[in-house]
Amino acid sequence: MAIEIVTIPDLGGAESVEVIELCTAVGDAVEQEESLVVLESDKASMDVPSPVDGSVVKYLVSEGDTVKVGDAIAEIETANAKTPAEEPSSQQAEPEVAPAPIEEPAVEEAPVEAPVASQEATTSEQIALVPDIGSDDKVELIEVSVAVGDQVEEGETLVVLESDKATMDVPSTLSGTVKQIIAKEGDKLGTGDQVALIEVTSGVASTAEAEVQAEPAPAPTPAPAPAETPVPPKQPAAAPAVNPAPVANDSAEIYAGPAVRMLSRELGVDLSQVSGTGPKGRIQKDDVNNFVKSALQLGTTSTGGAGIPQVPTIDFSQFGDIETVKLSKIQKVTADNMQRNWLNVPHVTQFDDADITDLETFRKSLKPEGEKRGIKVTPVAFLIKAAAAALAANPEFNRSLAGDGENYVQKHYINIGMAVDTPRGLVVPVIKDAYKKGIWEISADVITMATLAREGKLKPSDMQGGCFTISSLGAMGGNGFTPIVNSPEVGILGVSKSQMKPIWDGSDFQPRLMLPLGLSYDHRVINGGDAGRFMTYLVKILSDIRHMTL
Ligand code: CAO
After folding, report:
1. Which is more confident, 66 or 118?
2. Per-residue pLDDT reduced to its tens digit, 180-190
3. Ligand 1, from 342, 378, 427: best to mutate by most atoms within 8 Å of Cβ?
4. I need a labelling partner for 151 at 20 to 30 A (CA). Which of 103, 180, 376, 428 fits?
5. Is the pTM here over 0.70, yes or no?
6. Can you list the domains of the chain with their CATH numbers?
7. Helices (H) and strands (E) in the chain, counts
8. Residue whose CA is closest, atom 38 of ligand 1?
9. Pocket around ligand 1: residues whose beta carbon is below 6 Å from it?
10. Is residue 264's pLDDT more than 90?
C-alpha cells in the first residue's frame, strides 16, 4: 500500500481557480484518469484526473476552495507500493495524464467585409474564431449555444468545446447579430477555426473613423478576454429534479463539467432537463443520477410515465356544478391494469360475425330443462365452450410471454375468464377447466360467478389462472368494440349484440342471426395468421355447434 498525493497540475496560465465539484467520495475506488475534482476559472472548467488506480483516503480541498498549481487536493491509497526508483522526489505526484490547461480564451475575428464609410450607423460581418486552446489537437464542439438571428453580447457563449479533460465555453468578443453558425455539433475544431459569422453594428461614425474602417481588413488580432464566462445558469440552484418535466434551462445555459456531460451521454439524459444543485447551479453527477431515478419511478406510475405527457388537471367547477367521488378499489386496480396492458401490449383486433341462428334455436330448446335444473343458459355459456375449444385447436392463444423476454409459456390447461360488470367496477372471474365442462356446468358456473361478482364475494382464487377472456356486451347492444387484452393472457374476445341480417346463401338472401365478434390479441405472441385461424375456427363452431363435440 502507498499513499499518492494528487496536486493541481499546470493551469495553463490561470493563477488560481475554484474547486467546484468533488467527483467521488472518501473511500471510493478510482481508476487512473477518473476525475477527482472539477476546477473552474472564470473562463473554463477542467477535471483533475487521478494519476493512479486506488481509493480516495482523504480530500484535502472542499468545494468553493480556491487552489493554485501544486496545491495538494487528495490522498489516494494505491494497492502497490512504488519502488524507490519510481517514487517522485517530492511527495507531490504529477498526474500521469496531464489535463488540458485552462486557457484564457481569446476569440479572434477575421473581418470578411469592410464596412462602408458612412455618417450613419455601419455594419460589418466578422467571423468569430476558436481561440488558442493550448493544444494542437482538435476538440469536439458539443453545444451550439446560439441560433441564427440571436443578438449576442460580448462575453456571451457562442459554442462549447470539449476535450477528454475539459469543457470550454467560447465567448463572443463582439456584440451583434448571429448571421451564420459555421461550425456544428460534432465538428472537431482547433485554434483559429471558424465558429460563427456575426454582424456588428457600430454607432454613427465620424468621417475619419469611417475612412479607417474602410481600409483592407486587418490581420486578425487577439481580442480582449471577455468579462465573464462561462455564463452561469439564470435558474437558481434548485432541489434535485424529481420530475422530468421540462425546466427552464436552455442549452445555452447548461452548466456542467465534462465528467457530468459524459455521464449524461452514457445514460441518455438531456442535461437541459436537469436542475443543478452545485455552486452557481452547476449540474453534478448526483443531479443526473437523481433525474434518472425519478424518471424511472414515474415510469411505473399509472399516469404520465414512459415519457407520455400527462393529461392536464382541469378545474371543472368553472364550467358548472361538479362533485368528486372516490374511486373504488376495483376501479383503481382496473385503471392501472388497463393502462399497463394498453401500454405494454401491441394490440390488433380482428372482426367477424358468427351465424348463431342454429345455436340460438338449440339454446332456446334447452329452456324447459333449464327451468327444471334451475339454470338459465345464455349465449355466454356457448361462447365460453367455443373459446375453450378454439384454444385447444389453436394453442398459440394459450401462451404467455415469459418474464425473461426469451421464452413463452405454453399452458396445457384451459380456463376462460369472463368480464362481469358490477356496481363496484369490472371484475373477471375465471371458469376453470372450461374445455372439460358441458353447457350445463358452464352455465351454472357463469351464474355462480356473476352472482358472487355482483355481491363482491369473489375470492382471489376465483379470479386467477385465466388463459383467455370473454367480454360480452351482447345483452346491452353495439355492433362491435376492441377489447383490451388482459395481459399476461394474449387474447380476448369482445362479443356484441346478435342481429338478424340478410345473408346471401349463393342463390338467395336468408335471414340469419349474426353475432359480431372482435378478437384482440397480443401481436408479440400471436401473428395475423394465428388470429385468422382462431377466428375462423371460432365462427365455424358457433355456426355449427356439432363441431364443439368433435
Ligand atoms: N346478443 C344478443 N343477446 C344476448 C347476447 C348477445 N350477444 N348475450 C346475451 N344476450 C341476452 C341473453 O340471451 C339474455 O336474454 P334473455 O334474458 O332474453 O334470454 C340476456 O341477454 C342475458 O344477459 P345477461 O347479461 O344477464 O347474461 P349473460 O350470460 O349474457 O352475460 C355476463 C353474463 C356476466 C357476461 C354479463 O352479465 C356481463 O356482466 N356483461 C358485461 C361484461 C362487461 O362489462 N364487459 C366489458 C369489459 S371491458 O370494459
Report:
1. 66
2. 899 988 888 88
3. 378
4. 103
5. no
6. 119-239 (2.40.50.100), 244-324 (4.10.320.10), 331-549 (3.30.559.10)
7. 9, 29
8. 420
9. 378-380, 418-421, 426, 446, 450, 471-475, 483, 495, 497-498, 515
10. no
